[in-house]
Design brief:
The chain is of the alpha/beta class. About 35% of the residues lie in helices and about 20% in strands. It has 8 helices and 12 strands. Helix 5 (about 130-145) links the parallel strand 4 and strand 5. It is globular and about 55 Å long. It starts with a strand and ends in an 18-residue tail after the last strand. The mean pLDDT is about 95.
Length: about 260
Protein backbone atom coordinates (compact mmCIF):
# COMPACT_ATOMS: atom_id res chain seq x y z
CA UNK A 1 0.00 0.00 0.00
CA UNK A 2 1.33 3.42 -0.95
CA UNK A 3 2.08 6.08 1.62
CA UNK A 4 -0.48 8.89 1.52
CA UNK A 5 0.95 12.40 1.81
CA UNK A 6 -1.07 15.60 2.19
CA UNK A 7 0.62 18.84 1.08
CA UNK A 8 -1.03 21.97 2.47
CA UNK A 9 -0.31 25.42 1.05
CA UNK A 10 0.18 23.77 -2.33
CA UNK A 11 -0.32 27.06 -4.16
CA UNK A 12 2.97 28.46 -2.87
CA UNK A 13 6.43 28.11 -4.33
CA UNK A 14 7.44 25.08 -2.24
CA UNK A 15 4.16 23.23 -2.70
CA UNK A 16 4.27 23.76 -6.45
CA UNK A 17 7.86 22.56 -6.59
CA UNK A 18 7.02 19.36 -4.71
CA UNK A 19 4.15 18.76 -7.11
CA UNK A 20 6.38 19.36 -10.14
CA UNK A 21 9.05 16.96 -8.88
CA UNK A 22 6.85 14.15 -7.59
CA UNK A 23 3.51 14.28 -9.39
CA UNK A 24 4.59 11.63 -11.89
CA UNK A 25 7.66 10.21 -10.14
CA UNK A 26 6.12 9.64 -6.73
CA UNK A 27 8.22 6.63 -5.67
CA UNK A 28 5.34 4.91 -3.90
CA UNK A 29 3.90 8.08 -2.39
CA UNK A 30 0.31 9.15 -3.09
CA UNK A 31 0.26 12.95 -2.87
CA UNK A 32 -2.81 15.09 -2.28
CA UNK A 33 -2.13 18.79 -2.93
CA UNK A 34 -4.48 21.34 -1.38
CA UNK A 35 -4.44 25.13 -1.62
CA UNK A 36 -6.13 27.46 0.87
CA UNK A 37 -9.17 27.41 -1.41
CA UNK A 38 -9.30 23.61 -1.15
CA UNK A 39 -8.61 23.45 2.58
CA UNK A 40 -8.46 26.43 4.94
CA UNK A 41 -6.35 25.17 7.84
CA UNK A 42 -7.43 28.15 9.94
CA UNK A 43 -10.95 26.63 10.08
CA UNK A 44 -10.60 23.99 12.78
CA UNK A 45 -13.93 22.26 12.15
CA UNK A 46 -13.31 21.95 8.42
CA UNK A 47 -9.80 20.69 9.08
CA UNK A 48 -10.95 18.01 11.52
CA UNK A 49 -13.62 16.75 9.12
CA UNK A 50 -11.13 16.66 6.26
CA UNK A 51 -8.66 14.54 8.23
CA UNK A 52 -11.35 12.15 9.42
CA UNK A 53 -12.62 11.65 5.88
CA UNK A 54 -9.18 11.38 4.27
CA UNK A 55 -6.56 9.32 6.05
CA UNK A 56 -2.95 10.41 5.56
CA UNK A 57 0.35 8.96 6.73
CA UNK A 58 2.12 12.31 6.43
CA UNK A 59 1.25 15.98 6.10
CA UNK A 60 3.79 18.42 4.67
CA UNK A 61 2.71 21.88 5.78
CA UNK A 62 3.84 24.50 3.27
CA UNK A 63 1.10 26.96 4.27
CA UNK A 64 2.52 30.13 5.81
CA UNK A 65 2.24 33.88 6.02
CA UNK A 66 5.66 34.96 4.73
CA UNK A 67 5.30 38.70 4.09
CA UNK A 68 7.78 39.93 6.70
CA UNK A 69 6.97 43.62 6.25
CA UNK A 70 3.19 43.22 6.27
CA UNK A 71 3.33 40.96 9.32
CA UNK A 72 4.44 43.97 11.39
CA UNK A 73 1.34 45.88 10.28
CA UNK A 74 -1.15 43.02 10.59
CA UNK A 75 0.28 40.76 13.31
CA UNK A 76 -3.07 39.14 14.00
CA UNK A 77 -3.06 37.60 10.51
CA UNK A 78 0.52 36.35 10.90
CA UNK A 79 -0.24 34.73 14.25
CA UNK A 80 -3.45 33.21 12.90
CA UNK A 81 -1.76 31.53 9.93
CA UNK A 82 1.70 30.78 11.34
CA UNK A 83 0.56 30.08 14.88
CA UNK A 84 -3.02 29.07 15.60
CA UNK A 85 -3.59 27.34 12.26
CA UNK A 86 -0.48 25.25 12.85
CA UNK A 87 -1.91 24.31 16.26
CA UNK A 88 -5.10 23.07 14.59
CA UNK A 89 -3.08 21.12 12.05
CA UNK A 90 -0.89 19.52 14.72
CA UNK A 91 -3.99 18.46 16.65
CA UNK A 92 -5.60 16.97 13.54
CA UNK A 93 -2.41 15.09 12.70
CA UNK A 94 -2.11 13.67 16.21
CA UNK A 95 -5.75 12.57 16.31
CA UNK A 96 -5.38 10.75 13.00
CA UNK A 97 -1.88 9.25 13.42
CA UNK A 98 -0.44 11.52 10.73
CA UNK A 99 3.22 12.53 10.91
CA UNK A 100 3.54 16.29 10.46
CA UNK A 101 6.39 17.79 8.44
CA UNK A 102 6.30 21.53 9.09
CA UNK A 103 8.38 24.15 7.27
CA UNK A 104 9.81 26.86 9.53
CA UNK A 105 12.37 29.61 9.19
CA UNK A 106 15.80 30.99 10.11
CA UNK A 107 13.97 34.09 11.39
CA UNK A 108 13.30 32.34 14.71
CA UNK A 109 16.85 33.52 15.56
CA UNK A 110 17.95 37.08 16.34
CA UNK A 111 20.97 37.09 14.00
CA UNK A 112 23.47 38.14 16.69
CA UNK A 113 25.54 34.98 16.33
CA UNK A 114 28.51 34.92 13.96
CA UNK A 115 28.67 31.21 13.29
CA UNK A 116 25.98 28.89 11.91
CA UNK A 117 22.95 28.31 14.10
CA UNK A 118 22.38 24.75 15.29
CA UNK A 119 19.06 23.20 16.28
CA UNK A 120 20.19 23.47 19.91
CA UNK A 121 20.67 27.25 19.81
CA UNK A 122 18.24 29.42 21.75
CA UNK A 123 15.56 31.05 19.61
CA UNK A 124 14.94 34.78 19.91
CA UNK A 125 12.97 36.23 16.97
CA UNK A 126 13.09 39.99 16.50
CA UNK A 127 10.09 40.52 14.23
CA UNK A 128 6.45 39.42 14.08
CA UNK A 129 7.05 36.96 11.26
CA UNK A 130 9.73 35.15 13.25
CA UNK A 131 7.69 35.26 16.45
CA UNK A 132 4.60 33.86 14.74
CA UNK A 133 6.60 31.04 13.14
CA UNK A 134 8.17 30.19 16.50
CA UNK A 135 4.71 30.08 18.04
CA UNK A 136 3.74 27.49 15.44
CA UNK A 137 6.83 25.43 16.28
CA UNK A 138 5.98 25.49 19.99
CA UNK A 139 2.39 24.41 19.37
CA UNK A 140 3.65 21.39 17.43
CA UNK A 141 6.13 20.46 20.16
CA UNK A 142 3.49 20.79 22.88
CA UNK A 143 0.93 18.69 21.01
CA UNK A 144 2.86 15.93 19.31
CA UNK A 145 5.97 13.77 19.39
CA UNK A 146 5.84 12.48 15.81
CA UNK A 147 6.84 15.55 13.83
CA UNK A 148 9.59 17.11 11.77
CA UNK A 149 10.10 20.86 12.00
CA UNK A 150 12.36 21.85 9.12
CA UNK A 151 13.86 25.33 9.39
CA UNK A 152 15.15 26.77 6.15
CA UNK A 153 16.45 30.13 4.93
CA UNK A 154 16.01 32.60 2.07
CA UNK A 155 13.78 30.23 0.13
CA UNK A 156 13.32 30.89 -3.58
CA UNK A 157 12.01 29.25 -6.72
CA UNK A 158 13.07 30.21 -10.23
CA UNK A 159 9.61 29.30 -11.53
CA UNK A 160 6.99 29.87 -8.84
CA UNK A 161 5.78 32.43 -6.34
CA UNK A 162 6.97 35.87 -5.31
CA UNK A 163 10.56 35.77 -4.14
CA UNK A 164 13.89 37.60 -4.28
CA UNK A 165 15.16 35.65 -7.27
CA UNK A 166 12.19 36.48 -9.48
CA UNK A 167 12.06 40.08 -8.24
CA UNK A 168 15.69 40.71 -9.18
CA UNK A 169 15.19 39.22 -12.64
CA UNK A 170 12.08 41.31 -13.21
CA UNK A 171 13.49 44.60 -11.91
CA UNK A 172 16.74 44.23 -13.83
CA UNK A 173 14.76 44.49 -17.05
CA UNK A 174 13.05 47.77 -16.14
CA UNK A 175 15.28 49.62 -13.66
CA UNK A 176 18.66 51.19 -14.38
CA UNK A 177 19.93 50.74 -10.83
CA UNK A 178 19.21 48.27 -8.05
CA UNK A 179 20.23 49.08 -4.47
CA UNK A 180 20.75 45.82 -2.55
CA UNK A 181 21.71 45.45 1.09
CA UNK A 182 24.98 43.97 2.29
CA UNK A 183 23.82 44.01 5.93
CA UNK A 184 22.24 40.56 5.98
CA UNK A 185 24.01 37.23 5.59
CA UNK A 186 22.37 33.88 4.97
CA UNK A 187 22.07 30.90 2.65
CA UNK A 188 19.69 31.23 -0.31
CA UNK A 189 17.85 27.91 -0.66
CA UNK A 190 16.30 26.56 -3.84
CA UNK A 191 12.85 25.02 -3.35
CA UNK A 192 14.01 22.04 -5.44
CA UNK A 193 16.64 21.10 -2.88
CA UNK A 194 14.33 21.64 0.10
CA UNK A 195 11.63 19.56 -1.60
CA UNK A 196 14.01 16.64 -2.02
CA UNK A 197 15.16 16.88 1.59
CA UNK A 198 11.59 16.89 2.91
CA UNK A 199 10.37 14.05 0.73
CA UNK A 200 13.46 12.00 1.57
CA UNK A 201 12.48 12.16 5.25
CA UNK A 202 9.33 10.29 4.21
CA UNK A 203 10.92 7.91 1.72
CA UNK A 204 13.57 6.86 4.24
CA UNK A 205 10.88 6.29 6.89
CA UNK A 206 12.93 8.47 9.22
CA UNK A 207 11.74 8.20 12.81
CA UNK A 208 14.30 10.57 14.33
CA UNK A 209 11.62 13.17 14.98
CA UNK A 210 12.35 16.74 16.02
CA UNK A 211 13.81 19.97 14.65
CA UNK A 212 15.99 19.98 11.54
CA UNK A 213 17.92 22.66 9.69
CA UNK A 214 18.20 22.59 5.92
CA UNK A 215 19.58 25.23 3.58
CA UNK A 216 21.84 25.36 0.56
CA UNK A 217 25.52 25.58 1.40
CA UNK A 218 26.67 28.91 0.00
CA UNK A 219 26.82 31.85 2.43
CA UNK A 220 25.94 35.15 0.75
CA UNK A 221 24.70 38.67 1.41
CA UNK A 222 21.58 39.77 -0.44
CA UNK A 223 23.87 41.83 -2.68
CA UNK A 224 25.99 38.76 -3.45
CA UNK A 225 22.88 36.77 -4.23
CA UNK A 226 21.52 39.47 -6.55
CA UNK A 227 24.80 39.53 -8.44
CA UNK A 228 24.74 35.73 -8.73
CA UNK A 229 21.19 35.83 -10.09
CA UNK A 230 22.04 38.42 -12.74
CA UNK A 231 25.13 36.49 -13.80
CA UNK A 232 23.20 33.25 -14.02
CA UNK A 233 20.43 34.78 -16.13
CA UNK A 234 22.83 36.80 -18.35
CA UNK A 235 21.28 40.06 -17.12
CA UNK A 236 24.35 41.43 -15.35
CA UNK A 237 24.77 44.22 -17.91
CA UNK A 238 21.10 45.21 -17.91
CA UNK A 239 21.21 47.15 -14.65
CA UNK A 240 23.70 48.57 -12.16
CA UNK A 241 23.96 46.90 -8.77
CA UNK A 242 24.70 49.25 -5.86
CA UNK A 243 25.78 48.06 -2.41
CA UNK A 244 23.55 49.46 0.33
CA UNK A 245 24.37 49.39 4.04
CA UNK A 246 21.89 50.39 6.73
CA UNK A 247 19.07 49.48 4.37
CA UNK A 248 15.87 50.57 6.13
CA UNK A 249 12.91 48.19 6.36
CA UNK A 250 9.76 48.40 8.44
CA UNK A 251 10.46 45.05 10.08
CA UNK A 252 13.74 44.42 11.90
CA UNK A 253 15.78 41.77 10.13
CA UNK A 254 18.35 39.44 11.69
CA UNK A 255 21.81 40.21 10.29
CA UNK A 256 23.17 36.66 10.28
CA UNK A 257 21.01 33.55 9.88
CA UNK A 258 23.24 30.87 8.44
CA UNK A 259 21.88 27.49 9.52
CA UNK A 260 24.02 24.47 10.30
CA UNK A 261 22.49 21.50 8.50
CA UNK A 262 21.09 18.61 10.50
Amino acid sequence: MNTKVLVTGAGGQLGKTIEELYKDNNQGLDFVFVTKKDLDISNNDVLKDFFKTNKFNYCINCAAYTNVEQAEKTPEIAYQINGKSVKYLAEACKENDTILVHISTDYVFDGEKREPYTTDDVTNPINIYGKSKLQGEKYIQDISTDYFIVRTSWLYSKNYGHNFYKTIVSKSKTEKELSITTDQIGCPTDTINLSKFVVDLILQKNERFGVYHFCDKEVLTWFDFAKRILEETNLINKTKLVRASNYVTFARRPRYTVLKGS
